[in-house]
Q: What sequence folds into this?
């Protein structure tokens, strides 16, 4: 069994001083996740940029198609076939990418529910301990829950680091108490140790899930295919000499919307499509109701 700290595996054989010293090191999970999150304003800017870029591509290629139409006398051939192939390829890529992003989003949601359940289970199993140990563990679990919520609600790296260090320090203390009580009462080991170990495992699992995103190459391929597909529609309309503005604009809006939703859902801590903290908030309310915070 191994103790996890912010995604780092820490052997139980290490001393408490070594573990506490490791908390001072910058956490790569926190830094990487912080770089990949963005503000709501930036999220809107990305959506506007995608739509504006596709509309601009449509207009430029429509103009180029009109210019080409004046220079040729024969009817364009294979254009409709190429347009259909490009739009079909784009639909396939968007469908797979959206499904993968939705899957990662659902995984993150499920991990929040699992962590809330694990903390709740650990809280209940503390009732098997003597009064002094039970009271201290209850307080530690209450503080730990508060810090886990603060970590994912923090707006900056400093707030994340502060919450992470406090939650990891609480882990060290909780494990020390549980290990000590398990040695004193071996019959409790199979009840207490798995519950608290799962709490620590889920912290590492959520940290890993927060850094799991769409590969940059796939995102680049999606953007390139979107531009080429819209360009073929605009160029083809120009060769014909007319277009339906409502339909072509609607097409670019739908494509840019699907792209934005895929990107935004893949970074669910910020933006408009977010992974909520409601299971943890409900747990926090129940814990504070059973163990009111000391003021």
A:
């Amino acid at each position: 069994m191994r103790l996890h700290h912010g995604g780092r595996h820490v052997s139980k054989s290490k001393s408490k001083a070594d573990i506490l010293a490791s908390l001072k090191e910058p956490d790569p999970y926190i830094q990487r996740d912080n770089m990949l999150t963005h503000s709501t304003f930036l999220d809107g800017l990305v959506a506007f940029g995608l739509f504006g870029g596709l509309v601009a591509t449509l207009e430029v290629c429509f103009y180029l198609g009109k210019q080409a139409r004046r220079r040729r006398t024969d009817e364009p051939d294979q254009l409709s076939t190429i347009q259909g192939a490009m739009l079909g390829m784009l639909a396939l890529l968007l469908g797979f990418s959206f499904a993968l992003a939705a899957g990662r989003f659902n995984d993150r949601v499920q991990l929040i529910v699992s962590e809330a359940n694990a903390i709740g289970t650990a809280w209940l199993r503390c009732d098997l301990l003597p009064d002094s140990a039970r009271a201290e563990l209850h307080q530690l679990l209450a503080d730990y829950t508060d810090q886990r919520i603060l970590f994912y609600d923090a707006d900056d790296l400093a707030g994340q680091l502060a919450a992470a260090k406090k939650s990891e320090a609480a882990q060290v203390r909780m494990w020390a108490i549980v290990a000590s009580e398990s040695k004193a009462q071996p019959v409790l080991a199979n009840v207490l140790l798995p519950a608290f170990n799962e709490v620590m495992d889920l912290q590492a699992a959520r940290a890993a899930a927060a850094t799991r995103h769409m590969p940059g190459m796939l995102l680049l391929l999606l953007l390139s295919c979107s531009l080429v597909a819209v360009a073929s529609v605009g160029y083809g309309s120009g060769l014909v000499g007319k277009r339906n503005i409502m339909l072509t604009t609607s097409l670019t809006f739908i494509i840019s919307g699907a792209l934005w939703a895929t990107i935004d859902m893949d970074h669910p801590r910020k933006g408009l499509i977010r992974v909520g903290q409601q299971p943890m908030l409900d747990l926090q309310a129940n814990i504070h109701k059973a163990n009111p915070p000391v003021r």
Summary: The beta strands are 3-5, 8-10. The chain has one domain: 40-70+77-290. Residues 79-125 form the longest helix (47 residues). Confidence is low (pLDDT under 50) at residues 1-38.
